[in-house]
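Re: beginner question about structure tokens

> Can someone show what the tokenized structure looks like for a real chain? I only ever see the sequence side.

Sure, here's an example I had lying around. Input first:
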Amino acid sequence: MKMKKTRGVGVLLFFALSLRAPGAMPPVAGEKADRAEIAQLLWTIEAAVAARDAEAVLATFDPKEAALITRTRGMVQGLLALEGARLTFRLGQVTGDRNAAKAIVFRSATYKESGRPQVVERWETIGLRRRASGWKIVSEEDRLYARCVNTDLRVELKPEEGTMQGTSTLRIEVTAGGEDSLLLELNRGLTATSITDGQGRPVRFDREADAIVIPQPGLLRAGEARQLTIAFEGKLFNESKEQGYSQVSIAPGGSFASWVTNWYPRLEGTGSKSKGKITYVVPDGVTVASSGQLTGVERENGHQRYIYTVDRPIDFSFAAAKYFHREATIDGIHLGIYLLRGGDAKADLYMRECARVLRYERELYGAYPFDGYSVVEIPSEETGALGGSSEQGMNLFPTGVLPNDSFPLLLVAHEMAHSWWGNLIAPGDGAVTDEGLAQITAAMCLREFEGERAARRFMKSGVPGYSQSAGQYFVRFATPPGKDYPLGVANAGSDAIAALHDLADTKGMFVYDMLREKIGHDAFVRGLRAIIESSAGKEVTLTALRAAWEKASGKDLNPFFQQWFYRTGAPELVLNATTEATDRGFVSSGTITQAGEPYQVDVEIALAFPGRREIKSIAVSGASTSFSFRTELKPLWVVLDPDYKILRWTPAYRNYPLLADGLGLWSTGRKDEAIQMIEEYVVKVPETLEGRFRLGVCYEETGKLDQAERSFKFVLDRYGSLQVYEPAVTLSQLHLGHVFDLEGHRDEATVAYRQTLALPNEANSHKDAEAGLSSPYQLKSRVAGPGPDVLAGFVGTYDNGKGISVIVALNPQGILMVSQPGKPEGALEWIEGARFRVPGGSDIVIEFLEAPKVTAMDLKVSGLVIHLPRVKPSS
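And the corresponding structure tokens:
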């Protein structure tokens, strides 16, 4: 699910991208460091990029700065993969002496993506140290050289035309001098018709893509001020369309724009946050939800003018539509609910639950950093696959994502957490330093409100409506070759940035939770609060986060960060255990082995007895680690990491295609082949609960009741001992009642149904159990699924023309498969008619329309319906 902040190339592509090309500025009096040598070093980087020589780039770094080199290596590789990538730099002021120096550098990186030119321009400070071989780079950081202290923004939205026009007056203060230009950003779809200074005189500027460079007559000096007025007009461009979502649109059904789309002229970098006033002119009947506080509404000539005042420095976002809305102040925070669907009951629900989540996140991180908080719906017809977008003071959600009668805790908690991570604190090392922290916050909210079991289930396998999890990481990134990236490397290019966004939500969340387990919850939160206190309005890197957590916990975390943030993949830990009787009870002993470069992890081993378990912990390192435990009773099972606290490969992840293909065969009526395939899966994954449950259902429906009963009891016995919950537990309990009824054991069946009601409600299990208590279950005749000829009619490519494309194919076994460009293929399980689901993601449903001559599909994900016309049938 797409959330936010994929900004073309992202922040800190790699150090070299922040260096700019020649035309060096004149030397500054009193410089002692050798400008010519430093300029030559930067030229070396530029030449290495042109030659696609990553090692030559890395050779310009001080080899003693291992963390910087590790972080840079992946960034270099990402840069060199971009089409037509060109790096130029301009050396500015240099200070220091012959041994150590700092240089102010203007960097400009240009390349093409999706046929469009892309530009990333920054001022940066680099640190250098002289070694025997010459100058070497020891540090680099984006330069906060200026701040926008006030913005007077006036815009008129024309939804029927899909356009906007306006003016923005920026007052800019120089905070650190030594630069020769100001850098602004403006959405490439908008034309800057003029730029004038404080006296109304035209200002010369250069523009390419979103980047505007305004040359200055001399070097900027700290304390100086500039005033610029920019007039602009046009149709906003969606830079994320190739990733299948949008955070910007002007349309009759509703308009919206996130600050990350540069929908108004802004100073580049973290200095863009501003106080000020925003005036929106919209057609009558349209309500505006905006950053800031509403201070006035005026009507004039068929239009309304909304005036918002911004008292805290922020970047601006808005939505404008015919809203039902509600306002209230709770716990001292102004809350707003703006709905396109639903009324009073939905507004009450979201007001109450948002207040609860905000209260807990404030307990975690301290004062809420903005003037208020609003939940705002935006039209899903314009958003594509966007799941939510976090703005500074509000969250935008497509229609269909927010249910009328239930609250999507994880989604709202995640987007709300971006108030701190991404909006208050800018990401210095890519998505893991904002997206990953927002996601672990959502997991902590789930743990707080629904308990440890719910949090563990979510992090391992996802939940309906929110599938981001370890399981998704292994399917989408770890399994297909070339799809994985190190979490701590901010790679360049939209595709890589989109992948790192999703990696942060899946693997990144899990890694942060492992760190939380390692240092303790209190130290984990103290470290985050320390970062908020020290870095509000600035960028934060993994290095800074690590230092904060080391201080909070008193532990050296470098080994943890090296193996989890700067490596791809995950360990595969294999348990080999035996239990033997002795004269003093029983001894369970064995080894934990791992192939490849080993990980160092603390792993729990569970010794399972009837109705209880004992947990032991051992430190695993190297290719093989031995263990031995003595117990009075013989364990039923010896289980590695029963609660799945370590992100790791499991036999279930390795063999999941077998189960998915088996379910696909079963759903289309090929029962014998399906049972054979699912039995093979169970042999390879003997501890699986889902596989045993699914196999039990197959046995139940084919009359093999003894085998079905054994399958369901295996699931329940294992749960009884290990207390590790999965949906298969509730469903096995329900189906055990079915089997007892089919065998004529009515008393046992009613006990099974009552026990089902005591477990979490999964897939209407409680309703089915109530029905079983009312009357004995009878096996329903199953409608035959579609045959090969019907399935072949669904094959083709479906595309909405807005970046979302789905490919449907038949594999050699005759199973219907679905994929998206660049993503792994998966089997589809038939539901009824022309409706299918993705196994393991019951909230993802595909319905083919107008069968047998299929013209389109509806892709339904967590209440969001995306209509995709068929553009290319199979040949």
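Each token stands for a local structural state, so reading them left to right follows the chain. Confidence is low (pLDDT under 50) at residues 1-31.
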